[in-house]
Design a protein that fits this description.
Two copies of one chain form a homodimer.
Chain A (H helix, E strand, L loop, with lengths): L16 H16 L6 H8 L13 H25 L7 H15 L1 H7 L19 H11 L7 H21 L6 H6 L3 H16 L7
Helix pairs in contact in A: 1-2, 1-3, 3-4, 3-5, 3-6, 4-5, 4-7, 4-9, 6-7, 7-9
Chain A binds a DNA duplex (30 and 30 nucleotides) through helix 2.
Chain lengths: 210, 210
DNA sequence: CAGCTATCTGAACGGTGTCAACATGCATCT
DNA sequence: AGATGCATGTTGACACCGTTCAGATAGCTG
C-alpha cells in the first residue's frame, strides 16, 4: 500500500478530496459490494476523518450521485468504443448490446447504483443529452441500421425500446435460472447474442408504422 | 390505529409473527421506501422487541427474502389476471406487459427488492418454475400468439427476451428524460403501449429461425 | 402438576450517518 | 511582510442500526 493508492503528493491542502472520495467509493463498491459502501469506510479508504466528506458532499446520497455519474460516463465510453469498432454499421447495435451487458457484469454494484432511482435525484443524468452519450450513440446506430432519421418520434421510441431491452437483459442475464439453457447453447456469449438477435428484429420494423 | 393493523386477536403465543413481520415490512417499504426499512422499524411496526424477529429469520436478509417472495407471488397473480382478462389471446402479451409495468410502478420499492441480486440468495425464485408463475404465463401467451411450442429452445429464448424487455421498461419508463415525449404522445399509457408495440414485432418472428 | 421448548424481552456491542465546535493552513489584501 | 478570512480537516457527540446473549414468559407434553 502506498498512501491513498492515488498518484501525486497532495497538490493542495489535502489534495482534491471530492475526486479521491469518488474513486475510493468506486473501489470499495467493486471490491466489497454495496453493503460495505459506508461513508465512513470511504473516508477511511481515502485517509481522512469520517466528517471530512461533508465539506464536499451534502449527503451520502450526493456522494453516491457523483459515483453514479462517473459510471454513466464510463459506460458511454464503452458504448462509443463498441460502436466505433463494429465490423459494419449494421452490426453496431449488436456490438453495443454485448458491450453494454459486459459493462454491467463487470461493474455490477456500480451498474445497480446507476439505476437506483430510490435516491430522489437523478436517473439517467443530463449527460444523456450530450452528443457523445450512450443514448445518442444507440440512436445513431439505429439510423445506420436503417431507421428513418426524419420520423423523430418513432426513432426515439425505438431507441428507448432498445435501451430498455438491453438494460433488462443486463440485469437478468446471469440469473441462475438461465444457467442450463446457456450451457445447452454452448456458452454465455452465444446466449447473449441469441437474445439480442430477437431484439434485432424490431429494429428493422421501424419503417412501417402499424 | 388499531393494534398492529392486522386482524385476529393473536391466535398463538404472540400471534404468528413471521407473517406479521413480512406484512409490516411491506407496509414500511411502500410507505417510506427502502431506506427506512430497518429491522428495528419492522419490529416496532409489528409491536415487538428489536430482537424478536431473530426467532423467525436468521438475518435481516432472510426477512427481505420473504418479502421479495411475496412480491413475486403478487406479481404472478397480476400477470395471470392480465392474461385471463385479455380481449383475445393475441393481445394477451401486450396486456401482460402493461400489467407488469403497472405492478412495478405501484410497488416500486418492492419491485426493486425483488430484483436485488446483492442479497446472495434467490433471484427469480423457484416459484418461477411452477405452473402458475408469471414466467409460465408469458410463455403460454407467446404460444397463443403464434410461437412454435415444439421448438423449446427458441420459445424459451423468446420468453426470456420478452421478460427482460418488459423488466427494463418497467424500471426505466418513468425516467424524467421521457417526460416530454410522453406528453407529446398524449399520456403515459400511450407511451407504454407504443414501446410494447415495438417489442411485439419480435414475438411474431419466432417461426423463421434466421 | 412438573418440565420442556418455542417465543419474547432487556441490555449490550460495534458500526453507521450526521452535526456542531474547534483547529489548520492556503490565498489574498494592504 | 504580516494579518485576516475562508475553505478545508479533525474531534467528539448523538441517535439509530444489526446482532447477540442471558434471562423471563407462556403454551404444549407428559
Amino acid at each position: 500500500m502506498r498512501e491513498t493508492g492515488n498518484a501525486q503528493v497532495r497538490p493542495y491542502h489535502h489534495g482534491d478530496l471530492s475526486r479521491a472520495l469518488v474513486e475510493a467509493a468506486r473501489r470499495i463498491l467493486e471490491a466489497e459490494g454495496a453493503a460495505a459502501l459506508s461513508l465512513r469506510a470511504v473516508a477511511r479508504e481515502a485517509g481522512v476523518s469520517p466528517a471530512a466528506p461533508y465539506h464536499h458532499f451534502r449527503d451520502k446520497t450526493e456522494l453516491l450521485e457523483a459515483v453514479a455519474r462517473g459510471g454513466w460516463e464510463a459506460m458511454s465510453d464503452a458504448i462509443c468504443e463498441a460502436r466505433r469498432t463494429a465490423p459494419s454499421p449494421g452490426e453496431a447495435l449488436a456490438n453495443i448490446g454485448v458491450a453494454y451487458v459486459r459493462f454491467a457484469r463487470e461493474n455490477p454494484a456500480l451498474y445497480r447504483l446507476m439505476y437506483d432511482t430510490t435516491r430522489d435525484r437523478t436517473s439517467m443524468p443530463e449527460h444523456a443529452k450530450e452528443g457523445d452519450s450512450g443514448y445518442q450513440q444507440v440512436q445513431g446506430a439505429l439510423v445506420d441500421a436503417g431507421a428513418d432519421p426524419h420520423d423523430s418520434r418513432e426513432l426515439e421510441l425505438a431507441t428507448i425500446a432498445s435501451w430498455c431491452a438491453v438494460h433488462g437483459l443486463a440485469e437478468m442475464s446471469n440469473f441462475k435460472e438461465f444457467k442450463e439453457l446457456k450451457a445447452a447453447m454452448g456458452g454465455d456469449e452465444a446466449f447473449l447474442r441469441a437474445v439480442l438477435r430477437h431484439y434485432g428484429t424490431f429494429t428493422l420494423s421501424i419503417g412501417h408504422k402499424h
